Structures are given as C-alpha cells and as structure tokens.
Amino acid sequence: MLLGLIEISYRQTYAVYLGGEIIGYTNDRVALQKRINDYLNSGNGKDIAFVELPEMPTYEAVLLKKNIDTNDDDIFKAIASKGTAYYRYYAIVVDGSEKQYVQTFEDAETVVSKLKEKNSANKDKLGIVEKYNSKPVTETKIAVNDEGEVEEVNEEELTDEDKTGTTEIKLASVDDAVNAIYEKKKVYTYSSYQYIGTQVYSSTAYATNLGISLIQPVSGVITSRFGIRSRDNHKGLDIGASTGTAIKAAHSGKVVFSGTYYGYGNLITVQSDANSSVQTRYGHCSKRYVQAGEYVVQGQVIGAVGSTGISTGPHLHFEILINGTAVNPQLYIYK
Q: How confident is the model over 135-148, as pLDDT tens digits?
C-alpha cells in the first residue's frame, strides 16, 4: 500500500548540489553534466578558450514529488554564472621574452613566417605562446621606441602605470608586430580595462613531434589546465573522474617511478620505449598497479584515480615531459 502511494506521488530523480546547497533537480544527470562540460571546454563566445569553475556540481539520487518540476536550464545558468571565462590571444616570443601580442594563432604564425622571410637576426629565437585573459583583449597597441618615445598616441593620454607596461595588454596587427620585432622597438601595453591575469598555455604553441601517438589515460572534464595559476605553475592537466576510475597508459614504455612523491601523492612515471626523451606522469592515484622496472603497453590499466597528495578532490594529474621539461598535454590530446 505504502509503496503504491510512493509510486503514485513520487518519482526518482537527482538533486543537484553546488557549494553544499541544492540548486535544483534533474532527471538526466549525464546530459546535464555533458552540457556543463561542453561549456567549460569551449565557453559560448568568440575567442573564449575555456571557462573555469571554483567547484563542480554533485548529484544525489532522491525521490521527488511529481508536482515539482525539474529545472535543467536554471541549474545550468546558476552554475555558468559562477564561471570565469578566459579569452585567448597570442604572444610572439623572442629568446624567451614576450615582445608582441596578436589576436589569433594564424596571425602569430604569419608574424614568425614574415620575420624569417626578412632574415631577422632573431629568426632562430622566435616562439609563440598562447595566453589567456579573463576579459577580452583589445585590438590596438602603443609602440615606444628605444628612446622611450611614444609613437602612436599622445603621451599625455598615458598614466605612469601605463608607461610601465606591466598591467595591461594590447594587440598588434601582423605588420605592426613584424616591424616592431624586426626593428627591435619596445612596446608598452595599454587598454581601457584592468588586466586581470594571464595563464600560459605552453612555452611554445608548436607541438613538438613526439615520435609516438598518445591516448587519453582517463575520460573526464578538465578541471585545471596547464600553465600559471593563482597559486603555482601547473605542469599538467587535471582531469576530474571518480575515485577508482581506471588509469590507462597513454603510450607503451618502461615504468621508471611508482611510489609516493611530494604533492603528487601516489605517482607513476612511464618513459616511452619508442622515444626515450618522452615521459608521462600520472599523479594523485588511489592505487598503483605497476612497479618501477615493469614494461607497460598503451592502454594497459596502470592505476586508479584518487585524491592523494595535495589535492582537493578525485582527479588525475597528467603530465607530458620532453627531456625533463613539461609541455602542455593539450597540444597532443584532450584537444
């Protein structure tokens, strides 16, 4: 009798929590989470690289009265309102120092190509860095020559802070960027909004040929990306997944480390058998199924997702190293 009343009056659904508080109910948590993941990975506007959330929603199976509606759209809006969108732009780097900023990767490639065509003295020291800013970056610049003379704007319009070139970003056209770098002009950045911060996507936007192919070690949403964060320089990707989720070897090779290491917690490091200069790291594991000295094949389960070491929740910290230097995994996988 009681069971029949429950079936008539209630239906099974999921309560959605954010920050420990219920923000609504959904009948399909998988579809809702996919919508959230898609938004985090690409945003919903021009030039948005990704969106970061301070925390992810959690779900709990509940019985809900049938006269209470689920509200996926409201839940999504509530979660999206907590996110910070990051806009992408690109720095032209000369010998490790950022010299000019342009809007697109194609513009950056064109600048580098034209400088090489000009046989620029620094042609062998050029690089491209993809960068992120939490507000859109404007599309003009101020150029200052070696004597400190402003060339493209009345100096009276600049504040002392603007002249330091330390807090704001301006974008150059391709030709202006080429000429400024070729003629070794100094460039001060200036714009009408407060510069919030930058995240380095990679020491270079060019993907070095690893000589091997990689597979994703786990499936999940990227919760923290490669580069400079508020608290550190993050050397890998954090991929959110449930505790115990199988971690697969991204490539074949020899396990050169399997143990506990500082903030990584339980860590596994695999060196490629096809290219000994390439290693991958798998951090915060709850379990390690392989030991140092073992050989593993691509796709072999080597551990399980956990939250050991310095970690705020279950996820895989995944790194790619080339000759000991961490590079952005998204140049190769999780694109």
A: 666 554 444 444 44
